[in-house]
Write a structure and sequence with these properties.
The chain is mainly beta. The protein contains two helices and 13 strands. The protein has a single domain, classed as Jelly Rolls. The strands form two sheets. Strands 1, 3, 4, 6, 9, 10, 11 and 13 form an eight-stranded antiparallel β-sheet that branches. β3 and β4 form a beta hairpin.
């Protein structure tokens, strides 16, 4: 076998091996993709009057008095990975184990991992679990793509923003339910800024 043939065979073998590893990593991982670019709205029930739509490779909302995308499936112990983009004035969040109408106060029927850089009380702004775990200083999410990694396992709740843990809490009030993506009014109840989700995945534990 000459050198060129040997190199070609080695590259082909490496490529096949890499493809096999990639396939094995995907299979059995347990991750369910609910939003992938501009697709996935049909995996949610719309609540409220937010103008959720597919646009520019993401699921977007920027108008309305407030609204939610509520998963059609209920979850108990799970991980969420969500890629999002927000403006400085955006009021959004991810509501966990929703047991009623998420438009009510989060503490009344769910846990909220917040996205709200201009929240009047910044201790429960972006990166916090509202009412349970504060952030100080509050990280800023506006104007860039961010990744939330959220885990709910039993009474333990944790949130990571861009790889850094921002919140951790123990609470057993809500044990199971769907989760929701929020578009809300901004500070002082004025029109909130745009929120975009381009990848939302969930894995049951």
């Amino acid at each position: 076998m000459n050198r060129k043939t040997f190199v070609a065979a080695a590259l082909l073998s490496a490529g096949i091996g890499l493809a096999a590893c990639t396939s094995m990593g995907t299979m059995g991982s347990g991750w369910e993709t609910l939003i992938d670019g501009a697709s996935g709205l049909d995996n949610f029930t719309r609540m409220g009057d937010a103008n959720w739509r597919a646009e520019g490779g993401a699921i977007v909302a920027d108008k309305g008095k407030g609204g939610f995308l509520l998963t059609k499936k209920s979850y108990k112990d799970f991980e969420i990975r969500a890629e999002f983009w927000a403006e400085d004035t955006t009021n959004s969040g991810i509501f966990l184990r929703v047991t009623g109408n998420p438009a009510m106060a989060a503490s009344a029927n769910s846990y909220e991992v917040n996205i709200f850089d201009q929240r009047p009380d910044p201790l429960y702004g972006t990166g916090a679990i509202v009412g349970l775990s504060k952030v100080n200083p509050m990280p800023k999410a506006a104007g860039k793509w961010n990744v939330y990694e959220i885990t709910a396992k039993g009474s333990q709740l944790t949130a990571k923003l861009n790889g850094v843990q921002t919140a951790s809490a123990q609470d057993s009030k809500f044990v199971q339910g769907p989760f929701a993506l929020q578009y809300g009014l901004g500070a002082k109840d004025i029109q909130g800024g745009v929120i975009k989700f381009r990848k939302v995945q969930v894995r049951e534990l």
